[in-house]
Amino acid sequence: MIADMPGLMDEIRTRFAHVESCPFEGPRIFFENAGGALHLKSVAETSAFHASLPDNPGRVNGAGQALQRVIETGKADMALFFNAPGGQVFVGESGTELLFRLVRTAALGAAPGGVMIGSTLEHPATASARARWAGITGRELIRVPHDDATGTVTAEAYRAHLTPDIRVATILHTSPVTGMAVEVGAIAAAIREVAPEALIVVDGIQHASHGAVDVAALGVDGYAVSPYKMFSRHGYGVAWASDRLTACGKDNLADGPADNWELGTRDAGAYATFSDVVAYLDWLGGQFTDSADRRARLEAAGRAIKAHEARLTKAALKGTGNLPGLGAMAGITLVGGGAVEGREGVVSFRLAGWDSADLVEHLRRNGIRVHTRKADHYSGNVLVPLGMADCVRLSFCHYNTEAEVARFLSVMQALAA
């Protein structure tokens, strides 16, 4: 585990920018990772370098050829990150934009008729796309209800709504509100049993920084992530599409390559900064395995991250030292229950007698950065059934420490008391 290896946490934290201090507000603990993780220093350096270049990738000059190699290397790193045996990896405007494009392509490319299915747990990135394209293509839209108490949705819940005429299915890998992971592989397998030709698209945006991604094991057709939530920068998203989904008709230039998902000149810096993320995960995994295989090292990094964050989650919910956890504090209501297992980087809660925005401000004044989630078009699907107008989202990543969680709990204990 990361915290058990002397000096490793310090090495990790030195690789990230603004770990302990905000350039605008000064010292703070960063527990707003679900809104956008800390960025690697290498990403900032790579971004600045590529932003300074006037050249287009692929031109017959040294710079153009070098940038083309950067893109090709980035695509190889993306395929490695996804563990994609085939299909295409590509960048777009954002993770949300890419999910809309994947769902649209699936809806228009699938056989006519039938239905589209997803769950009520999903972020609007897939839920809105699914509703829009079900309406346009004249398909019934099936919404599988998630469990309010546990904050997740199971394969059994999906199975109760499965029919052979499913054309497109969407699955959320991890909820950015409840923090609870979803058994994507089991849900995809259940769908395949009943509707083997269904095209399955996964929102991996919350999950991507909290454990390894393996589309080969999941058996799905599309998967998208937002790099700014996984140590890179804003301004682009990354997706993978299977050969089957890629074969569907999509927006591309007339007489151009039919399998091309990308339009216009690419920003080589996006690919380069994703390669920085993969290089970092490769390094981190190398602290836990002697394997010479890069994918094995990425998987080792995923396991180490998951284990460390489970410790942070347990501390936040159950307590650490002589400090009680949120689960034992008077007046605290936890979104998605108090389970540690299955939770990935997020604990959302309310404190009785406090408006969530006021509590976020109080924590900010005490040097702790968290965020409010409201019962709006982003989070209302989870909060409204719970009778909550808002909540506070505490979100951490593997570079956070148990001492930082203890500091948060000390401030909360004073309020709850």
Automatic annotation (TrEMBL):
Any one GO molecular-function label of the UniProt entry: lyase activity
The entry's keywords: Lyase, Pyridoxal phosphate
UniProt keyword Transport, yes or no: no
SUPFAM superfamilies: PLP-dependent transferases
Lyase among keywords: yes
InterPro entries tied to this protein: Aminotrans_V_dom, PyrdxlP-dep_Trfase, PyrdxlP-dep_Trfase_major, PyrdxlP-dep_Trfase_small
Domain Aminotransferase class V: 30-245, 303-408
A Pfam match: Aminotran_5
Protein name per Swiss-Prot or TrEMBL: Selenocysteine lyase/cysteine desulfurase
Organism lineage string: Bacteria, Pseudomonadati, Pseudomonadota, Alphaproteobacteria, Rhodobacterales
